[in-house]
Amino acid sequence: MSTGGVVYKDLLPIPDTDPTEHEGKSATLRDAPTDSHALALDGARVPPTEEKGAAQVEHQKEVVDLGWNEPKEHVAKPLVGGLDNEHVWMLVRRFNKQIYQVKEIPTAPPGGLDLNVADEEEFTPDKFRANLERLYMTIIIGIIGFAKHIARIRSWRESRRTAWFCSAYFAAWTFDMIVPLLSVTLLTLIVHPPAREVMFPPAPIALVSSSGGVQKPKSGTLGSIDSVTGAPENHKGEAVEQEATNFVYGFATIALSSATGKQPEVEPKEDKSPDDNIPDTTRLAMGVAHAQDKASGNKPDKDHDKTKVPLETAMWSKMRPIMHAVSDIADTWERFANMLDPTPPFPQNKFRLRLGVVIAPIFFLSMFVSSYVFMKGVTFGIGFGFFGDPVIQRGFALLDRKFPKWKKLLELRNTLLKGVPTNAQLTITLLRLGEANKAPLPPPPHITHPPAEQTAHVGSDELSAMGVDRALNATKEELDDAIAYDPEVGHEVSGEGSEKDAKHVKKGSKILSFFRGTAKGAVETTRGADKVKAAAGSTHAKNRLGALPPRNADLTSGPVEFKARFDGKKGHAYIATKSTIPCIAFSTDKTIEKIGSVDREDLHPLWSVPVSDIIDIKKVGGFGWKAKMVVGWAMERELADGLIITDSKFNEYRIMALPLRDELFNRLIAMGGQKWESW
Fold first, then answer.
1. Where does the record place Basic and acidic residues bias (predicted)?
2. What is the side-by-side order of every strand in the sheet holding 652-656?
């Protein structure tokens, strides 16, 4: 597939691939079955005038280590030309949370890029939470940032910029040119990126108040640029990711509090409340809601309440389409973001120009079409859409008969957004770029200590104004005071409700500590029993062996050998790339720990699978999600999960107790020529 240059067909939103056509199987990455594979292969052919990253340099070794298991200061810089390492790691970190399972597809992927979400993807709470977090990190953060820009303009603090906007608007209003003004402004922002910083100078979201002025960030310091709270972070994007997690947990807490009827601010304060002797009800299961109904005289059991089962069934049946809708919305937002601000190795101009070609006719039409004709057309469309359902349905039925694939062909991702990646598709392209040059991208560095309470660097790229205006109309002293760390902000506890909550937290923590000790003892007992059961042949017990690594154990491995277990046996999963077709194998040979597996013919693996034969890779855990949560909480350690690899003969290989599960998963899906679909 050709990816270089801009040709006329690239500027037109016309699908050139049939997403239902079977293309067959590609054995290796170099077969370039998708635009993603082709871009990865072209990554090494960077013009001499452009910066080339370490992962874009072709290597003669079987695999080159660019800094796996090393501190970020020792990792090669940059890994990809045009991208700082922190941005690459942010993409990979979010990719690891989003993608749980991939399956090979034989058909042409929509828009020329694989790793689209499958229509049949099943609902799970983890996937739904991950999609809600994506919704926060993309759309909600974007809307908040846009709202802060509007507040800055409306406040007149940056008077020159607001005056220009005001003058242009009312001049256009006077001559009935509002639509031409808006369309030409939009067109300029799309095709000429420097205009964006002129019209909308950047400013950290947390630093801008709702009135458009300067405020102290809610975390007490400006430790991050793109987060709402300004919280400090060890790596770029971590603060927003933590906000997204707390955003979802906050909604869950509110929902559970509503179900249990908790109203801490309304209940009368007594010298000794019965609630003081029990932990917070929001920590209990949903059964508390039913208990409260019974205490109120209601009868929530199925014999009295005939609505419970059908309503719950209806709600759960709708959760999958809701999850898909959230995912589609986030995907579309990411595609438009990557269209307007492309990331290497994707083309820098092609997609923006295509969008400009679509917007340009609106400007020219608005110059000649009167507002009267425009409104007549809009109101006719509204009326036809409301009253013309019989005609519309017959039209759809005719299209379904004559062109059964028309809906797939006209999807945004196969027309206007053809070839534009989501963040997941961008990430797998970067992973493939490294694999194409035998230089797999190092995983995001793992830092366990909390981020330091220090301010982020704020330069002209992060905070500026138009012309001679001062940024946010604030003096340097005001900005320094707002950015500086204040230990009191974000940690203040005041008011009767807060005192009561603090008392609940203190007493609740004692109770939780007691239960943690009890649970810890139960976990240790279960681990001992698992060893006995595994020796007796229990498959489930074998899958749990090693899932809880010893404290302070050395878990470093990769990029070739990965510590793991198979059928309960300790060993290493390793990737052999010396042959024409790379393979994934497992060996219990203890010498791998010391001398590795590269260029060794004395290893006798228990099994070996060509990477090109893999049709399904799924992330799994040795424990169920409930047990995993309890074990991790009781032992205060991260559990090592595993992978299920399925080959073309439908043989399954379950690799467990795999500390670097995500890293092995990423290498396997990026090495071959498969076209993947996310499940």
1. 264-275
2. 116-117, 676-678, 101-104, 614-620, 642-647, 652-656, 561-566, 569-576, 583-587, 607-610
Is 582:95 a contact under the CB 8 Å cutoff? no
Q: How many CA atoms lie within 13 A of 409 on its CB side?
A: 12
- Phi-psi domain of 78 (left: phi exceeds 0; alpha: psi -120 through 50; beta: other): beta
Residues of the chain with pLDDT under 70: 1-27, 44-50, 256-305, 467-468, 489-516, 579-580, 593-602, 624-630, 632-637
pLDDT given for residue 282 in this prediction? 40
Q: Give the closest residue to 276 by CA, choosing from 578, 505, 584, 616.
A: 505
pTM of the model: 0.84
Taking phi first (over 0 means left), then psi (-120 to 50 degrees means alpha), and beta for anything else, what does residue 546 get? left
Q: How far apart are the first and last CA of the chain?
A: 26
pLDDT at 381: 94
Phi-psi region of 410 (alpha: psi -120 to 50; beta: other; left: phi over 0): alpha
Long-range contacts, 201-204 (Cβ 8 Å, 24+): 201/158, 201/161, 201/463, 201/464, 201/465, 201/466, 201/471, 202/461, 202/462, 202/463, 202/464, 203/148, 203/152, 203/462, 203/463, 203/464, 203/471, 203/472, 204/230, 204/456, 204/458, 204/462, 204/463
For 325, phi and psi rounded to 5 degrees? -65, -45
Residue 47's pLDDT is 62
To the nearest 10°, report the CA torsion of 47, 48, 49, 51: 90
Question: Which one, of 213, 265, 202, lies nearest residue 462 by Cα?
Answer: 202
Select from 66, 62, 42 the least CA-distant residue to 54.
66
Length of the chain equals: 679
Tokens linked to 512: 């939780």
Contact (CB, 8 A) for 100 and 310:
no
Question: What is the pLDDT at residue 546?
Answer: 74
Contact 399, 318 (CB under 8 A): no
Of 115, 4, 24, 38, the closest CA to residue 436 belongs to 38
Half-sphere exposure of 141 (CA within 13 A, CB side): 28
Q: Rounded CA gap, 224 and 207, in Å?
A: 10
Which amino acid is located at 353 in the chain?
A: L
DSSP state of 107: B
**Residue 17 CA to its chain's centroid (Å):** 27
Query: What gap in Å lies between CA 208 and CA 204, rounded to an integer?
Result: 7
At residue 611, the pLDDT reads 93
Given a contact cutoff of 8 angstroms between Cβ atoms, the answer to whether 112 and 669 are in contact is no
Token output for 603? 């290893």
Amino acid code (one letter) for 266: V
**Closest C-alpha to 424, from 323, 322, 329, 335:** 335
Tell which residue, 489, 486, 477, has the closest CA to residue 454.
486
> What was the pLDDT predicted at 316?
74
The Cα 671–Cα 435 span in angstroms is: 6
Domain ranges, ordered by start, for the chain: 496-536, 542-678
- According to the model, what pLDDT value does residue 409 have? 84
| Encoded amino acid at 73, one letter | E
Helix (H) or strand (E) holding 625: helix 625-635
Structurally, at CATH architecture level, domain 542-678 sits in: Roll (2.30)
DSSP code of 29?
A: G
Return the C-alpha torsion angle 585, 590, 595, 596, nearest 10.
Answer: 20
